[in-house]
Design a protein that fits this description.
Elements: E1 4-5, E2 15-16, H1 20-26, H2 29-41, H3 46-53, H4 57-69, E3 73-75, E4 86-88, E5 93-94, H5 102-129, H6 135-140, H7 152-167
């Protein structure tokens, strides 16, 4: 998994997530969807969020309260009576696999599976609905896959460049003519780098 889960602030204020319980709270498919809709449409009440993710208000409320206990969402100002809007906590999340214990690493794998399933849903949803978008949007959207031969230092530099490019757009608020765009990055070796043999000198 990428060490960083983007939010609309600088990585300098990132929250490291290490505990198995925090990762478990984050790796539930419905809770991930709730966090997404709070990102794109929030603040939302449990009833409003439930309508967007296809569950009941009571179920959405349960999961929102659980996310709040782990510091991923919070109540937004302006609630009155039973109308309690929720919002994402304005802080990005980072996960460094090298600092996790075995239980947390298992939960991280579960989170990876949930995020990959969500990415698959986004890609298939675009394929189903592509014709409903204007030609400008159909030309602008896309999937890119490439394989490059890189050293670890070069890969680290590439990630810094990609993160810098994303940082220029993730801060932008919703504006007329914009829609939420899912951006997923993976820069992963296709083989275990420790098994790569050094180049032999020619005799």
């Amino acid at each position: 998994m990428s060490k960083r889960y983007f939010r609309n602030v600088s990585f300098d204020d990132a929250r490291p997530v290490r505990s198995a319980s925090d990762l478990r709270a984050f790796s539930h498919p419905l809770r991930l969807r709730l966090m997404e809709v709070l990102d794109t449409d929030g603040p939302l009440t449990a009833t409003e969020a439930a309508a967007r993710v296809g569950t009941t208000p009571s179920n959405a409320s349960f999961h929102l309260r659980l996310l709040a206990r782990h510091g991923f969402v919070e109540e937004a100002p302006g609630g009155t009576g039973r109308r309690r809007p929720w919002r994402r906590v304005e802080r990005p999340i980072t996960v460094d696999g090298d600092t996790l214990d075995e239980e947390s690493r298992l939960e991280l794998r579960a989170l990876l599976e949930v995020m990959l399933a969500r990415h698959r849903d986004n890609v298939l949803g675009w394929a189903r609905n592509r014709s409903s978008y204007s030609p400008d949007w159909r030309d602008a959207a896309g999937e890119t896959y490439a394989v490059a031969h890189l050293t670890a230092a070069e890969l680290s530099q590439l990630n810094e460049q990609l993160e810098a490019a994303l940082a220029t757009v993730v801060d932008k608020p919703p504006r007329p003519g914009t829609v939420p765009v899912a951006i997923t990055l993976s820069t992963l070796p296709t083989h275990n780098a420790t098994h790569v043999e050094p180049e032999q000198e020619q005799s």
